Amino acid sequence: MSMLLETGLIINEYQSNKLFNGVLAASQLLGILTVLSAALWMGGYNEGGFSWTDDPERQFHYHPMFMSMGMIFLLGEAIIVYRVFRHERKRFTKLLHIVIHTSTIIFMLTALKAVFDSHNYHRDPGTGELKPIPNLMSLHSWIGMLTVLGYFMQYIIGFITFFIPGLDINVRKFTLPFHQLFGIMLMLAVTGTALVGISERAAWKHTCWTKQGELCGQQLMANFLGLCIVGYTACVLFIVLNPRWKRKPLPEEECLYPVND
């Protein structure tokens, strides 16, 4: 990869920029398709659309949609922002980075409230009596909560280290590689958690393949969502792991911002 991406032995600068633009376009298409397919999956077929506390079952539908929007699409956008805007001033990219991450947290918390409410206020379909579903019992929920905790740690440490001015530059230099590595690990963890959750929901609700043994549109949409998530993650990692597309400090930033992103 270093021969292909870091040197000009195989592709020149013009070809590298075309490759970047192509992968970036693919990532945006797959990211948008991820959000749309999650919305169509939960809003169409026999899922019943969306609601809030008056219908806990349909309130759950916000969970996969907002997690796809926040913890997958927006998280990926925050990760690649320093590559996409690598020729812009660092102050702009840093502010955009933190704004996107903050938006991710809002979607994440809303999605978590949706799933916990749908469990806590679940009612028996036959009698209508309150019959809560136990929380945090599945592998998806365990991996998901660990990922959420990891994300909050990453956000807090990153905010204190890189956004608040005044911290010693050597501390920033030491922290940066771990911050970048953990961000990539979070993206992979989110992707794995989402795929487990899609499979869990499909096995629980899609009777077309669990009972009738058929590939219905509902199951097809769930599979398509999973493929879009994998494709989006692959594009994001390809962009961020390419050393040739790494942001380099502008001349006026050399003495002001010695830490590279």
UniProtKB/TrEMBL annotation:
Entry-linked InterPro entries: CYB561/CYBRD1-like (IPR043205), Cyt_b561/ferric_Rdtase_TM (IPR006593)
Topological category with respect to the lipid bilayer: Multi-pass membrane protein
Primary location group: membrane
Keywords attached to this entry: Electron transport, Heme, Iron, Membrane, Metal-binding, Transmembrane, Transmembrane helix, Transport
Record-linked SMART domains: B561
Localization annotation: Membrane
Transmembrane segments: 20-42, 62-83, 95-116, 142-164, 176-199, 219-241
GO molecular function: metal ion binding; oxidoreductase activity
Cofactor(s) required for function per UniProt: heme b
CC per GO annotation: membrane
Presence of the UniProt keyword Iron in the record: yes
Chain ranges of the Cytochrome b561 domain: 26-241
Superkingdom: Eukaryota
Protein name (Swiss-Prot/TrEMBL): Cytochrome b561 domain-containing protein
Lineage: Eukaryota, Metazoa, Ecdysozoa, Nematoda, Chromadorea
